């Protein structure tokens, strides 16, 4: 019996020790870090399982006028930061005394400025004196009151470099609203303690507010996104209110949008819901560059067109197609038709360079190769007599300029093709006597043969005159490239089709927003383009130029890390005023959080949220939304094959 009782006694002793430990520890002891190093004058080191750095900052200067909710919004929504606002009401007597003293000082300075003949300064001082008198009278009547307030912010980061970067970003962000934020130099310990929930202000940096301006510091606002003429895209998870979204709202600086989410997060369902509703309710025309074969059913449901491009299809899209564009004269404001051969030569050259590099992205292709390609492309157009004169694009001779519509019905010349360009390369190679170019001609002849129909090239589906035209007024056009080989043929098709879409679909839109149709171009699985520099360059260019043509570029991808690691593609992100983040993989969230300054709560939400839920950021506004298609919409927006088969 004694042997069996021994373990029981030991257990009881351990329980007693544990209870004793807990009884002698306060909550502060249990949650406190191992230690805090306050020896630095400009930051603290919080020593725990993983050391964190903290820097406390104070609001040193504020603007003359404060508006809600913009006054401290940039600080409240900045990211990993704690903010404390200490407010102390001032007594009526002391307020009256200080205001009277201020009024006397302003009047004295005004008189000095008047005697010096400084009229501008005199007017400013007079205005300030009148405002101070008005405030004094309001306080005396009980309609207003003065307060002293201190605003302290503490930033956190896991490295000192990150902390320095966050400090610069916060300073720049607050400077937009004329708020000067400075680190609490040599007072980091006191500032950090002041920012703890002990209600004790150890700093003495105070600003005087009246009752109206004091109300602007309270962060009692909810994130709402709503456009007057928008379509219901989903519901705000926090408020339950519908989110009305207008991709073409005049309040946006541009119309582009990016959607990031891991596989199965609901990217396809979201963009299909947005596209179908905006087509029916707002008349927006859409064109999808379909990498996965998902949008054909949407085209059918909306009465659009579905085009399949594959090695076995009869559809040909000519890379060399050139179209006139409508431009507005900067002086007269009138629209005219124009032709820009130089830009088209550059676009074709970029696409042919990608072809020449191939799936291995050969380093043999360099500036000499590009020069040969560009010269040959330019010669192809010149051989047909095509110049920047718009008449040269059509058969027959017409003297003088043609108007906006007079070119309609005229027969266009046949365009150059990859095959005709390849034959020109063969001829130039034979007559070439420059040894520097010999290798590059030989290389082009070998690798570009696979794109030529005359030689039964396995990737010759872009060689020949176009057999398909993009029609105006079609609600949805789907270009399906899902049957092409994924590793290289599909990204190549994306680049070529982007150039063709720009020529045939975007450039036709008027620069006058009142006349231009609202169009959207969808690029699915955009990460496929990123390994190819020429494709990235064209994507950036299109993102910057789309707004001028009243076109929204919608880029969707499940691999944000690829965008993060390639600075060349940053223009796509900076040129997109609308960003939607759906459920994210843990490996991706750190990059999104760093680039878009998400808070820790927002980042955690994106890791754990359900399918169809996400964070929508439109300009400076953001909302946690849930996209909920109707039962009828699910018939053509659902992409999960298991769900489709169970219907």
Structural class by secondary-structure content: alpha/beta
Mean pLDDT: 85
How is the main sheet built? 11 strands, mixed
Oligomer classification: single chain
- Percent of residues in β-strands: 15-25%
Broad shape: elongated
Round the Cα radius of gyration to an integer and report it. Answer: 33 Å
**Residues in helix, %:** 25-40%
Concise structural overview:
The chain is α/β, with parallel strands linked by helices and 647 residues long.
Index terms:
647 residues; alpha/beta; eleven-stranded mixed sheet; 20 strands
Fold and architecture overview:
By secondary structure, the chain is of the alpha/beta class. It has 22 helices and 20 strands. The chain has an eleven-stranded mixed beta sheet. Helix 12 (367-383) crosses helix 13. The chain starts with a helix and ends with a helix.
Secondary-structure map:
Blueprint: H1 2-23, H2 27-31, E1 35-37, E2 44-47, E3 52-61, H3 73-76, E4 81-89, H4 92-116, H5 119-140, E5 146-157, H6 160-175, E6 180-183, H7 188-194, E7 207-210, H8 211-214, E8 231-236, E9 242-245, E10 257-260, H9 267-282, E11 285-290, H10 296-301, E12 305-308, E13 325-328, E14 335-338, H11 341-357, H12 367-383, H13 418-431, H14 435-447, E15 476-480, H15 489-506, E16 519-523, H16 533-545, E17 551-557, H17 560-564, H18 570-574, E18 578-582, H19 586-596, H20 600-608, E19 613-618, E20 621-626, H21 634-637, H22 641-645
Parallel strand pairs: 10-17, 10-18, 11-15, 11-16, 12-15, 16-17
Antiparallel strand pairs: 1-2, 2-3, 3-5, 3-6, 4-5, 5-7, 8-9, 8-20, 13-14, 18-19, 19-20
């Amino acid at each position: 019996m004694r042997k069996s009782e021994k373990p029981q006694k030991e257990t009881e002793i351990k329980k007693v020790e544990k209870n004793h430990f807990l009884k002698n520890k306060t909550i502060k002891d249990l949650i406190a870090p191992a230690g805090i190093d306050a020896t630095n004058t400009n930051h603290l080191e919080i020593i725990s399982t993983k050391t964190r750095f903290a820097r406390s900052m104070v609001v040193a200067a504020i603007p003359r006028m404060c508006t809600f909710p913009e006054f401290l919004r940039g600080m409240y929504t900045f990211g990993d930061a704690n903010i404390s606002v200490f407010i102390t009401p001032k007594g009526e007597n002391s307020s009256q005394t200080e205001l009277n003293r201020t009024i006397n000082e302003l009047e004295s300075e005004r008189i000095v400025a008047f005697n010096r003949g400084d009229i501008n300064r005199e007017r400013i001082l007079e205005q300030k004196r009148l405002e101070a008198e008005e405030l004094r009278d309001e306080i005396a009547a009980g309609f207003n009151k003065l307060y002293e307030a201190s605003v302290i912010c503490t930033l956190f980061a896991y490295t000192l470099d990150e902390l320095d970067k966050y400090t610069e970003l916060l300073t720049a962000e607050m400077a937009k609203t004329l708020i000067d934020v400075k680190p609490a130099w040599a007072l980091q310990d006191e500032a950090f303690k002041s920012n703890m929930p002990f209600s004790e202000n150890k700093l003495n940096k105070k600003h005087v507010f009246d009752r109206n301006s004091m109300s602007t510091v309270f962060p009692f606002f909810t994130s709402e996104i709503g456009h007057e003429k928008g379509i219901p895209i989903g519901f705000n998870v926090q408020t339950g209110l519908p989110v009305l979204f207008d991709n073409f709202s005049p309040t946006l600086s541009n119309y582009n949008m990016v959607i990031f989410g891991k596989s199965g997060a609901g990217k396809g369902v979201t963009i299909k819901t947005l596209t179908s509703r905006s087509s029916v309710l707002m008349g927006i025309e859409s064109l999808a560059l379909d990498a996965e074969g998902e949008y054909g059913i949407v085209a059918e449901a909306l009465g659009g067109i579905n085009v399949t491009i594959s090695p076995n299809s009869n559809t040909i899209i000519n890379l060399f197609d050139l179209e006139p564009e409508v431009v507005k004269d900067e002086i007269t404001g009138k629209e005219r038709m124009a032709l820009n051969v130089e830009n088209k030569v550059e676009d074709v050259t970029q696409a042919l360079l990608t072809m020449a590099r191939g799936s291995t992205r050969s380093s043999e292709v360099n500036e000499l190769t590009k020069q040969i390609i560009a010269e040959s492309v330019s010669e192809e157009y010149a051989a047909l007599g095509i110049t920047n004169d718009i008449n040269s694009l059509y058969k027959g001779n017409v003297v003088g300029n043609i108007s906006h519509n007079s070119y309609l019905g005229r027969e266009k010349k046949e365009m150059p093709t990859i095959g005709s360009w390849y034959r020109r390369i063969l001829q130039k190679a034979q007559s070439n006597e420059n040894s520097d170019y010999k290798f590059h001609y030989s290389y082009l002849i070998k690798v570009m043969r696979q794109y030529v129909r005359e030689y039964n090239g396995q990737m010759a589906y872009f060689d020949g005159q176009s057999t398909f035209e993009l029609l105006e007024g079609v609600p949805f056009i789907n270009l399906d490239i899902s049957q092409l080989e994924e590793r290289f043929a599909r990204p190549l098709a994306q680049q070529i089709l982007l150039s063709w879409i720009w020529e045939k679909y975007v450039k036709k839109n008027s620069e006058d927003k009142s006349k231009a149709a609202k169009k959207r171009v969808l690029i699915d699985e955009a990460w496929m383009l990123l390994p190819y520099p020429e494709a990235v360059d064209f994507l950036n260019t299109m993102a910057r130029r789309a707004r001028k043509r009243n076109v929204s570029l919608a880029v969707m991808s499940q691999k944000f890390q690829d965008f993060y690691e390639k600075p060349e593609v940053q223009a796509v992100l900076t040129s997109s005023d609308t960003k939607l983040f759906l459920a994210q993989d843990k490996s991706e969230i750190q990059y999104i959080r760093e680039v878009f300054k998400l808070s820790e709560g927002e980042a955690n939400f994106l890791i754990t949220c359900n399918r169809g839920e996400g964070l929508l950021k439109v300009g400076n506004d953001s909302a946690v939304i849930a996209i909920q298609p109707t039962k009828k919409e699910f018939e053509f927006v659902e992409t999960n094959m298991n769900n489709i088969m169970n219907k």
